[in-house]
Model the fold of this input.
Amino acid sequence: MTLFKLSMRNARRQAGDYLIYFVTVIISAALLYAFNGLIFSDEIRKLSSMMQSLPVVITLSSIVVVCIIGWLVHYITNFMLLRRSRELGTYLLTGLESRQVSRLFFLENLVVCGSALIPGILLGNLIFQMLRAVMLTLFQAPYRLSLSFSLKAVGLTFFYFLLIYLSAQLRGNKRIRIMKIYDLIYFDRKNENLVIQKEKKRRRLFTVSIVLGIIGTLLLLMGNLASGIAGSACIIAFLFGFFLSFSSGVPAWFEKHPEEKYKGQTLLIFRTLSAKLATMGVVMAVISMLFTAVLITQGAGSVFAAIFENRAKQIACFDLFISTRTPEQTLPHYLDYIQENIPVTDSLQYNLYQADNAQITEHITTDTYPSFAASCDTLMRYSDYAALRSMLGYPEARLRPGEYLIHCMPFLKDQISGIAPDITGEGVTLKPGAVYTEDFLQRFWSDGNGNGFVLVVPDKTAETRPAGRTVYAAMTAQPVSKAQYQALNDLSDTYCTAEYVPLFIKSYIIEEAASETAIFAFPLYYLALVLTITAAAILTIQQLSETRRYRQQFLLLAKLGMEPREMAGALRRQLAIYYAMPAVPPLLISIPVVYSIGNSVEPWTLTGASSPLMLTVSCILLFFLLYSVYILMAYSSLKRNVLPVTQRPVL
Done:
């Protein structure tokens, strides 16, 4: 048999033995191609001027991703070398030179890489279409299916994988060439050495690592750069210390609680796990560190996306919105241009009035947002309010006699309802009525329809008070174009030099928010996804590599009389604990950190389904959704290859 045929045969067998790795490489190639497609897409870059920086951000993210995938390939290559060292040593015994054996190993992995790259690019094109559809939806642009391949994206993906595999294989080949036959044959018997040999020191390290984990999490919650760096260092020290010392903690606990040792399958499960952790503590620590990065990165991406979306939603109610304190000097110039150049379907020019006190404003200033300040509460005529609700498509809000309405941002509803005063004017006393919270352009610094809230009163009551601002709000037949937006801004520079005139254009606000989401949130999701599949793949491959030992172990248990149902339960519990071990510490660290990131922004931005709590929960669920895929694949494989053997009748 020629060297090439032998390589092909071994590559096919290797792909079967390491199917999880093969699938992970395919997904990695697909993600690289999909995001490379964004780099070279003229359609995406033309969506906004801000999108010109997207290729740079994606390229930097891809460099990190290449390093992560490179580590995965390097680790699995060494793992394959460990598992197949006896076979490679046998080749040397049969007369092959070390140079030929290293070339054989190189060709096998090159075939696996090439076999994964082709379906990866095909899958990547589908993922690119999904990313493209999401991008165009963010910008509210039309989407048309296009399955054409980007040759530049294919070339860059091929270049990345060439770097990854050449780096890993050259190091693996060098190792084969310098190893002796004896070393290769007995290489698979080597395990990760215990870093700390003495049990007493391991127990101390376990305690110290827990303390460092608590300190590190608290430092991360402080939210500044210096504490973040110090907290990250403490977290890394905690994870390595915890997993390197955990193997001594289980036997020590059983020494103090011997009655627990023989309950159910406890001894079998924890003895197996503690033995495994004793030989792969460093790997578990690295994987747990990756999971921590996944959850925090994914959580930060979710927070950024929610911030950009909600901020835009809150101020992009009207297609066109202009607010001014000097309407006689400013509005005519805008209205003339709009009449000539922008088709308007509905519009309203109205005044916002000043109440005679700032009772509500002072209350929310003190208790809700300290930097917010205004000299008086804002009033609006009911007729104007009703017209604006109709313009926005909101249901009718009826004003009962002797009452006034309140329209506020959602997070202020309960607070304002509890302290809303009676309003007296023209001999009439108005009591607070219904409270509405639809988006109404009320963000505190926006000079919109009230700073966080507006009190809707009868027309005659409002007209007795001085007008504070004049507003022009309109809905247009088509979105305001970039050229039209620029022309309106030029009018502001020319005719409104004495006053800043807030100008809100829905199309521009949506474009800006979509660009920020693409630039900041997408790369974070990209990194989180690659980190998740990398860490989960290594865990799964490590577990499936023990299939033969598990088969022998459960066969022995069957001979000793253990029921198949009990063995299946033991296998499930063992897998559950094995996969939970590297995931629990990251959860305990990341949950408060992600929640704190969400609470660090202004309180009116992340509310409802986008509240910090909901974002944290969704981040965890998304992580476990992908993680559970690998867990189920491992369980299915072990159940199929291990348990059926144990269930044969014993003669």
